Amino acid sequence: MKKRKAAMVILGMGILLLLFLLFRTAGIAATGSQRLLSLFSQGEEETEEAEKPKIAITFDDGPHPYYTEDLLDGLKERGVVASFFVTGKHAALHPDVIRRMSEEGHLIGNHTYSHIQLQPGNREKFREELVKTNAVIQEITGKEVIYVRPPYGTWDKELESELNMIPVLWNVDPMDWCSDNVSCIVKKVVGKAKENAIILMHDYSESSITAALKVIDELLEEGYLFVTVEEILFE
């Protein structure tokens, strides 16, 4: 009798162990399936993103202590990245805003220190302002500054090799800096938007920020993917 009981106990334990292993295996299989489904879904999302037309929105003249923060809030809410071409003077005054730009994945470029325009008689001063602004931005972010947006688009190609910098111009300009008509600004941008376009706007007025976020909303609805300018220039 005792031997029979012992055998039954051993048999019961064996069945329990087998069930445990079966459930564990099933659990692993289920987890594996979930991971495969997750990877498949991720792959589909990446494919969809790759197929979207890319466009870049850029902002000059900042950072502004209030308007730029509002813009960054709006960009974060929409999951959109932008490219900011900042003046060294404003960057030095508002380092926390610059730091936030960098931490949230936006590209930060050089727009000279005082928004000086390159002219025949001020090349050395212009160059000095670029160097000074690079130092300000790098001190705040710890990152090298590669891209420059020359005020008014005036540039000297020799500076590219001298400073190891790449100029970034634009092909969509709604002239938002001289207008507070939000609907007009939006219409100009959306009407000229196309794949691989670089939009020029400014983050130094309330109307520009309002218009920029409306532009982004409309272009997102049209299926555009917002990227930083380096993706437009080199991909």
Molecular structure report:
It is a single chain. Helix 6 (158-163) links the parallel strand 4 (147-148) and strand 5. Mean pLDDT is 88; it is low at 1-7. Strands 1, 2, 3, 6 and 7 form a five-stranded parallel sheet that branches. Strands 4-5 form a two-stranded parallel ribbon. 57% of the residues lie in helices and 11% in strands. 33% of the residues are buried. With 235 residues, it is α/β, with parallel strands linked by helices. It folds into two domains: 1-51; 53-234, Alpha-Beta Barrel (TIM Barrel), CATH 3.20.20.
Structural class comes to: alpha/beta
Summarize the amount of helix as a percent range: 55-70%
The pLDDT mean sits at 88
How does CATH name the architecture of the largest domain?
Answer: Alpha-Beta Barrel
Query: CATH topology of the largest domain, anyone?
Result: TIM Barrel
Low-confidence stretches: 1-7
The whole-angstrom Rg is 28 Å
Question: SSE layout and pairings?
Answer:
Elements lengths: L1 H50 L2 E7 L6 H12 L4 E4 L1 H6 L1 H9 L3 E4 L12 H19 L5 E2 L9 H6 L2 E2 L14 H11 L5 E5 L3 H16 L3 E2 L2 H6 L1
Parallel strand pairs: 1-2, 1-6, 1-7, 2-3, 4-5
Helix pairs in contact: 2-8, 7-8
Q: Gist?
A:
The chain has 235 residues and is α/β, with parallel strands linked by helices.
Task: Based on the model shown, name its key terms.
2 domains; TIM Barrel; five-stranded parallel beta sheet; 11% strand; 235 residues; disordered N terminus; alpha/beta; two-stranded parallel sheet
